[in-house]
Write a structure and sequence with these properties.
By secondary structure, this protein is mostly beta strands. It is built from 7 helices and 23 strands.
């Protein structure tokens, strides 16, 4: 498709852009602001790959003639994770680059655009190549909804796909990040994705702006596929490969985490990692070591758990136990809150709670119930039977 476009002169592309009604129609239907249209002078075209070559050779190259680059938008500002920026990719050779603009724009993923380059600069931001000093009004949308299919690659191959949209399979956020949101309240969030290939674990950072629409959403707890755009942050000899999330809807990470065990039956109960991930209100058996009890109806930090006796006599403490895979666990991100209803026919609260039975601390409990959030953490409502292991 791109090769056929390049056979036209830019003047012909301008006529197509002016005559096409689908751009305006689609922009209105999707509630995106349409970039102000301005007739563009004729000029020569240059490929994204050629721009990347200029950047590598010169470090910084300013365009002084009427020149255009044509590409397909793979990353836009819709989610708020990008600001005054977009990514374009060549569907023929997959070369890609970031556009950094003087103001926000109405570009959308799938738009084929002609970018007027005169007075713009091919440079970089800490290792990620950019076309800088762009005025959005000199970007012409030629076609809509020409989506580029992400390449499915291993995490270790990200360095060969700079600025490209890619998909990772069999990935999950690392255990220490579970319970965090995608971004910090006062800035970018940096969360680590891990992938296991044949027993070898590789990692990459997911970097998210606190202005993203999903910034305050808790990160995915499960294993699955992750789609985003590869970027690089280089500072001297230190380099960090990063991913830009386009939409959390492209993170299909709801499967069992690697390293997790169990099927949820009485004979093969879920471990804590599996139970933390599922949380779909399904009935299951779970087992883990009792490591504490809640002292607050809203658990936010480790201090909201009583890890050691004395356990006092608070009603909330008597109604809960916190279980983990490790009897010495002290991190709430690795724990499951078990709420024990007072009307449980098996009298689990009366027999298990740490207020009356502090000797139960560090015992292995196997319990049946429904997997659902309790007091702000992944949990289990223990409305079924239980036993000791």
């Amino acid at each position: 498709m791109l090769k056929s476009i390049l056979r036209y002169s830019i003047l012909s592309l301008m006529i197509i852009g002016m005559m096409s009604s689908c751009v305006k129609k689609n922009a209105r239907q999707n509630n995106f602001p349409e970039p102000p249209y301005k007739p563009l002078p004729a000029g020569d075209t240059i490929t994204i790959d050629s721009i990347l070559t200029l950047w590598r050779l010169e470090g910084s190259h300013k365009f002084t003639t009427d020149t255009y680059v044509i590409g397909t938008v793979t990353g836009d500002e819709t989610s708020g994770n990008l600001y005054k920026a977009a990514f374009i990719q060549d569907p023929d050779d997959n070369s890609a680059i970031e556009l950094y603009m003087k103001s926000t724009c109405g570009l959308r993923i799938g738009d084929v655009v002609a970018v007027y380059l005169k007075d713009a600069t091919a440079s970089e931001y800490s290792g990620t190549p950019q076309i800088q000093d762009l005025d959005p009004k000199y970007i012409t949308i030629l076609e809509n909804e020409q989506f580029i299919q992400p390449a499915v690659i291993p995490v270790t191959d990200a360095c060969n796909h700079l600025c490209q949209v890619v998909t990772f399979e069999n990935v999950q956020f690392v255990k220490d990040d579970l319970g965090l949101t995608y971004a910090d309240t006062d800035g970018y969030g940096e969360r680590t994705i891990e992938q296991n290939n044949y027993g070898i674990t590789s990692t990459i950072i997911a970097r998210t702006s606190n202005y993203a629409s999903f910034a305050n959403k808790e990160i995915a707890r499960g294993n699955g596929t992750f789609t985003g755009i590869v970027t690089l942050y280089a500072n001297g000899s230190n380099t960090t490969w990063q991913m830009v999330i386009r939409s959390v809807n492209e993170l299909n990470m709801n499967g069992p985490r690697f390293g997790a065990t169990g099927t949820g039956t009485e004979d093969d109960p879920y471990d804590i990692a599996s139970a933390i991930n599922i949380q779909d209100e399904s009935e299951a058996w779970v087992h883990g070591y009792i490591v504490g009890a809640a002292k607050s109806t809203t658990i936010v930090t480790n201090d909201d758990i009583l890890w050691e006796p004395p356990f006092g006599n608070e009603a909330i403490t008597k109604a809960t136990v916190v279980i983990a895979n490790n009897p010495d666990e002290r991190n709430i991100s690795n724990c499951l809150v078990v709420y024990m209803p007072n009307n449980n026919p098996y009298e689990i609260r009366q027999k298990v709670n740490l207020v009356d039975h502090p000797e139960n601390i560090h015992k292995m409990l196997k319990v049946n119930g429904h997997l659902k959030n309790q007091y702000g953490l992944p949990g289990l409502k223990a409305d079924g039977n239980f036993n000791w292991e």
